[in-house]
Amino acid sequence: MEEEDEAKCDCPSGIPAWVMTFADLMSLLMCFFVLLLSFAEMDVQKFKQVKGSLTEAFGVQRVVSASEIPKGTSLIAEEFSSAAPQHTLINEVRQVTTDDTKQTLEFTDALEKSENQDVEGQKQKEEISEKTAEDSLKLQNALAEEIEKGLVEIETQAGAIIIRISEKASFPSGAAKIRKGFIPVLKKLRVALSEVEGSVIVAGHTDDRPIKTARFRSNWDLSASRAVSVVHELLKEKIIPEDRFIVEGHGDAHPIVPNDTPENRAKNRRVELTIVQKNDANTETEMSVAKPEVEREIPKQDPESSEPDPLDEITVG
After folding, report:
1. Are 208 and 297 in contact (CB under 8 A)?
2. Which candidate, 222, 288, 210, places its Cα nearest to that of 250?
3. CB of 290 within 8 A of CB of 274?
4. Position 142 in a domain
5. Could you please report the per-residue DSSP string of 190-252?
6. Contact 58/29 with Cβ under 8 angstroms?
7. Is this prediction's pTM over 0.70?
8. 8 inside domain
9. Range of the structural domain that residue 166 is part of
10. Number of domains observed in the structure of the chain
11. Helix segments in the chain, DSSP class H
């Protein structure tokens, strides 16, 4: 009877055979990774760097205990504190100051500084312009007779005084020696310049007619020699320091009128004295005297045979 019951019982045959293989594989993998971990080394410095980067990225804050309560200005005030704020992801600004007596902190406005500098610069320009006008009037009064005769012209331009000496009474044609009759005029000019401050730029100018003689190779030589002759005469009696003068020769490069008529050529033959004014700090003003731009025509005359200008025949006084 019992044998029949055992034959009828349908018992399970157990777990599948592949489970044993899977279990063995998992055990081997676990041992393998444990072995890898035992061989690995921890880089503490790199770990701290990664930790710090994550802390900044996620906005983790750490409050440091202080010996005294941090003090700062109110966020409602319009002034900015000089302390550097601590940047956080939350809407919180921490600024520290050591002076607990101030209600607000002062700051300097860069725009206000710039405006003050502009005002000071404009004030200095106005003072220089006023001084230039006063000195120009002083020179005009000293040379009133020569100005009336047309021997000298005085002009104020860009913070400088320009004294223009014409050639007709000062130099013979094609020469750099001053006429004797014009020396008294330079004496008066010498005294007037001694009472005026500023550097003096003496520049000679000619017309566009070429010149080539034994003494002057070109108009550049002639213009420079005439400027030097004027400076030598002004330096007599030693009432004006030599370091005030600058000599220039421009030839026919800067005419004031076109060289198309004898009258205009006579106007271009001149010597100009430009007085550059100085400010209170004894520094020369940054200026450039505007040179007249006049169209020039290349002369077609023979350089060896140029006819003299009728205005050059001036009798010596």
Report:
1. yes
2. 222
3. no
4. no
5. HHHHHTS-SEEEEEEE--SS----SS-SSHHHHHHHHHHHHHHHHTGGG-S-GGGEEEEE-TT
6. no
7. no
8. no
9. 151-312
10. 1
11. 2-8, 18-39, 44-58, 110-142, 144-149, 183-194, 219-234, 262-268
More confident residue, 117 or 145: 145
Domain membership of residue 73 (yes or no) is no
What strands lie across the sheet with 152-157, from one edge to the other? 152-157, 160-166, 270-276, 199-205, 245-249
The CA distance from 135 to 122, in Å, is: 20
Look at residue 96 and tell me if it is in a domain.
Answer: no
The residue whose two tokens read 């002057």 is 216
Q: Please state, in angstroms and rounded to a whole number, the distance separating the CA atoms of residues 157 and 117.
A: 25
Nearest alpha carbon to residue 218 among 180, 170, 190, 252: 252
Tens digits of residue pLDDT in 207-259: 999 988 888 999 999 999 999 999 999 999 889 999 999 999 999 999 999 99
Nearest alpha-carbon partner for 193 in 227, 228, 231, 225: 231
Q: What is the pLDDT of residues 248-268, one digit of tens each?
A: 999 999 999 999 999 999 999
At residue 310's C-alpha, the angle toward residues 308 and 312, to 5°, is: 75
Where is mean pLDDT largest: 47-61, 69-83, 87-101, 272-286? Answer: 47-61
Domain of 299, CATH number, reads 3.30.1330.60
Strands 160-166 and 245-249, by their bridges, are unpaired
